[in-house]
Design goal:
Mean pLDDT of chain A: 84
Radius of gyration of chain B: 31 Å
Radius of gyration of chain A: 34 Å
Number of strands of chain A: 0
Distance between the termini of chain B: 71 Å
Number of helices of chain A: 2
Structural class of chain B: mainly alpha
Largest sheet of chain A: none
Strand content of chain A: under 5%
Shape of chain B: elongated
Shape of chain A: rod-shaped
Helix content of chain B: over 70%
Low-confidence stretches of chain B: 1-32
Low-confidence stretches of chain A: none
Strand content of chain B: under 5%
Mean pLDDT of chain B: 81
Structural class of chain A: mainly alpha
Number of helices of chain B: 11
Largest interface: A-B, 59 and 74 residues
Oligomer: heterodimer
């Protein structure tokens, strides 16, 4: 049976507290702390992976929403780019008109 | 063939340069009649660059953690005998060392990688949109083509229409100026539309990163440092039991040194990323507020830029890029 998220969090947090305690404990207490850490050893890998997988879902959901927003900006950048494009087309259009004018011998 | 030549020279004649300038100025007033100031545009561009730097640093830290996990895992199996009183080779024979202690690869924490990529893309898009050079080069080129086309009109025709080369150059300048104003106007418009809409989700992402790298209880930071501390504790136990042997010391002490180094470097990276992510939350709120209230101080955004650059440098330093 898969480990529940709550249990996984408890294991991860308990190990953290034990390591914090170990870092501050006097030498003669280390073995007692280690024995408690070792009791959780068989479950730690599953606990780690359960916590990481569950929390990753929140990142995934947020990423999808922001990516949609970014498309709006990309579209705006492309839209702004159309101004220069329009001017270029206008210049080509005017050149075309001038060619026609020159072909009929200039303006009256 | 008549193409309204009678109208065009009349316009040119009646539009003295100061009158045309007045029209351009009026156009400018209309276009700039938007609430977002030039300072806000620049601040939003800085925010975009900083968000992209934070996201890049975050992604690099996750990738480095996956590399470090391999180092820590190998060390775990070297000091395996110290974990229990019995030196049982079964896990080694079963190739247990090939299985990650915690899965941190891009496919395993795809959400975190996607979040970093999304924040980077958003930041880069904002920075590109607000970069004053974006499209202005294109606009200048288009304006040049336009004036070149006008200058292509035969000299006799220009003379008949009383259009001088100076008039054509002036038209080119007006087009470029009006175009620049238009670009600024559109940038402001986009900023007003996008930033308030994106603010809640950017806030969520930056908060998630700040929480993930929190050394005092963040998911990622806790899981990762737990495993490092596990190896350090195992190595200490092994040293206390077998430290009398030179051969064991020669194996165990470098493992202790390397694991301690990974711990301190990752702690420095996580801390600076957490600070930058918290600053991202704050400056994102400031940016969104400044869109509706131009009097808002933009200091938070400058602070974010400093912290994001620092985090980027610390992460790069820890992975040996600088």
């Amino acid at each position: 049976m898969a480990m529940s998220f709550d249990t996984a969090v408890k294991i991860v947090v308990a190990r953290r507290k034990l390591y914090d305690l170990r870092a501050k404990a006097p030498q003669d207490q280390i073995a007692k702390i280690d024995s408690q850490i070792q009791r959780l050893d068989p479950y730690k890998d599953e606990a780690n992976n359960t916590v990481m997988a569950k929390s990753d879902a929140a990142f995934k959901a947020a990423a999808a929403t922001l990516s949609a927003q970014t498309k709006d900006i990309d579209a705006a950048i492309a839209d702004i780019g159309k101004l220069a494009q329009a001017l270029t087309q206008m210049a080509a259009f005017i050149t075309g008109i001038l060619k026609v004018i020159q072909a009929v011998g200039g303006l009256p | 063939m008549r193409i309204g030549v009678g109208v065009k020279p009349r316009f040119v004649r009646q539009s003295a340069p100061f009158q045309r300038l007045a029209i351009a100025s009026l156009f400018a007033l209309v276009l700039t009649g938007c609430g977002v100031s030039r300072e806000q545009l620049e601040a939003a561009g800085t925010f975009g660059q900083s968000a992209a730097a934070l996201a890049t640093g975050t992604k690099a830290a996750y990738a480095q953690a996956a590399q470090d996990e391999l180092t820590v895992r190998t060390a775990t199996y070297v000091v395996l005998s110290a974990r229990t009183d019995v030196d049982d080779p079964t896990p080694i024979k079963n190739r247990a060392y090939r299985t990650p202690l915690v899965r941190l690869g891009p496919k395993d924490i795809a959400g975190r990688y996607a979040a970093a990529a999304a924040l980077a893309a958003y930041g880069e898009a904002l920075a590109t949109l607000l970069d004053s050079k974006t499209q202005e080069g294109d606009l200048a080129t288009a304006s040049d083509k336009f004036t070149t086309a006008l200058k292509g009109i035969p000299a006799t025709t220009l003379a008949e229409a009383k259009i001088t080369t100076a008039d054509i150059d002036f038209v080119g300048k007006v087009i470029t100026t009006a175009g620049d104003l238009y670009l600024d106007y559109r940038r402001r418009q986009v900023l007003e539309q996008v930033v308030p809409k994106a603010a809640p989700i950017v806030n969520k992402l930056c908060s998630l990163f700040a929480s993930d790298f929190d050394l005092e209880g963040g998911v990622f930071a806790t899981v990762f440092t737990n495993d490092i501390d596990d190896v350090l504790a195992s190595t200490e136990r092994a040293l206390s039991r077998r430290g009398g042997s030179l051969q064991d010391r020669a194996i165990l002490l470098p493992i202790y040194q390397q694991t301690t180094s990974i711990r301190s470097k990752s702690a420095a990276s996580f801390q600076s990323l957490q600070e930058a992510a918290n600053s991202c939350v704050k400056s994102n709120k400031t940016l969104a507020k400044s869109i509706s209230d131009p009097t808002t101080s933009l200091q938070d955004i400058i602070d974010f830029a400093t912290k994001a650059q620092k985090a980027y440098a610390v992460v790069n330093s820890s992975i040996g890029l600088k």
